[in-house]
Design goal:
40% helix; Carbamate kinase; single chain; 13 strands; alpha/beta; 13 helices; 2 domains; VC0802-like; 8-stranded mixed β-sheet; 3-stranded antiparallel β-sheet
């Protein structure tokens, strides 16, 4: 059961989470939590500001978490070592005038570590024995791509050993893992969903529940389309497409571990726990006989069109383009190729367009 930042962003919301989880007992849920809403943004901003010698945001981050503990009636003492670590990291950035991806992950991961300790203490106070667990210490091993890390195969066995068996309710940090060398990593923005399915797959869970502030996956973005409706079911393939093309409910990589183990994923609303949400399974029938289920969109995309006589020479033009983009670190979102192969159009994020153009020139239009 994963609860996002909107679900744990205030003491009354944490109380709601406790009641939802209590309703799942005596089954043995594992609870995965995000940082409080907005805290990851605050921590990333703290890193950037520390480069300029400004550490003022530290006080606001500490005050917010201490105030939450006080409002819930739990001891804030377990937070102090983490807040001290956060202050030390920020001071290090300020002194060295250097903010590496590795340091940024250490800073950003503090939000989930603080949240998990507060939520676990609140469960215990409410009569549900619970323990906070750092996923980085429980065996969520990743590669070394700081800021966008991916789990390693051996993480399954380590997580299973750490989180299964008797004991209190585990309240696990989302978003963070660690390298084989012990360095903290993050799984990308909104990566707590990904943490939940990694852990669910490792444990062989009956189902992974993703709790947020919407009634599941919708037919469109409800902020733009007021008449959008929640979908009852989606296939893994459909949900993956929506996530990659701008759907806001799930992190793009979330479904991969669940697909691998055939574990259903359900998107639910913390503020309407009676709503059935959207269930994501291996195969789903069309909604009410209609093939079109949902519309998503993605901002800041550009179409590049490449045309050259060299493209008429034979097969493999698209493969050459993909190879050029891969070497430049550019992700191609869509591609369209005419029958003559003389013109190929493809979509990239606008931030990557310069790198894409340089790679195209090097491959097809060398000077």
């Amino acid at each position: 059961m994963k609860f996002g930042g909107s679900s744990v962003g205030a003491p009354d919301r944490i109380a709601r989470v406790i009641e939802i989880v209590r309703g799942r007992l005596p089954r043995k849920p594992v609870v995965v939590v995000s940082s409080f809403r907005g805290v990851t943004d605050d921590l990333l901003a703290l890193g950037r500001e520390a480069l300029k010698g400004d550490l003022s945001r530290l006080d606001a981050v500490g005050r917010r978490h201490r105030d939450a503990a006080k409002a819930l009636g739990v001891d804030s003492a377990p937070l102090e070592p983490l807040l001290a670590e956060l202050a030390e990291l920020a001071r290090g950035v300020s002194l060295l005038k250097e903010l590496t991806p590795r340091t940024l992950d250490r800073l950003a991961g503090c939000g989930e570590r603080l949240s998990a300790r507060i939520v676990a203490a609140a469960f215990a106070k409410a009569g549900v024995p619970a323990a906070a667990v750092d996923a980085s210490e429980a065996g969520l091993l990743t590669d070394e791509r700081f800021g966008e890390a991916a789990p390693l195969p051996e993480a399954d066995a380590l997580l299973r050993a750490a989180l299964s068996g008797p004991g209190p309710l585990r309240v696990v940090t989302g978003f963070i893992g660690r390298t084989r060398g012990g360095e903290m990593t993050t799984l990308g923005r909104n990566g707590s969903d990904f943490s939940a399915t990694i852990i669910g797959a490792a444990l062989g869970a009956e189902e992974v529940e993703i709790w947020s502030d919407v009634d599941g996956i919708m037919t469109a973005d409800p902020r733009l389309v007021p008449g959008a409706r929640p979908l009852e079911t989606l296939s893994f393939a459909e949900a993956c497409e929506l996530a990659h093309y701008g759907g806001k409910v799930l992190h793009p990589h979330t479904l991969v571990p669940a697909m691998r183990k055939g574990i259903p994923v359900r998107a639910l609303n913390t503020f309407k726990p009676e709503h059935p949400g959207t269930r994501i399974v291996a195969a789903a029938a069309p909604a009410h006989g209609v093939a079109l289920k949902s519309i998503a969109f993605k901002r800041h995309q550009l179409i590049l069109s490449a045309s050259s006589p060299r493209m008429l020479s034979g097969p493999g033009v698209a493969a050459e383009i993909f190879g050029a983009m891969k070497s430049a670190g550019v992700n191609v979102r869509m591609i369209s190729q005419g029958a003559s192969k003389n013109n190929v159009a493809f979509v990239v994020e606008d931030a990557a367009v310069d790198a894409a153009v340089k790679a195209l020139h090097a491959r097809f239009f060398p000077i």
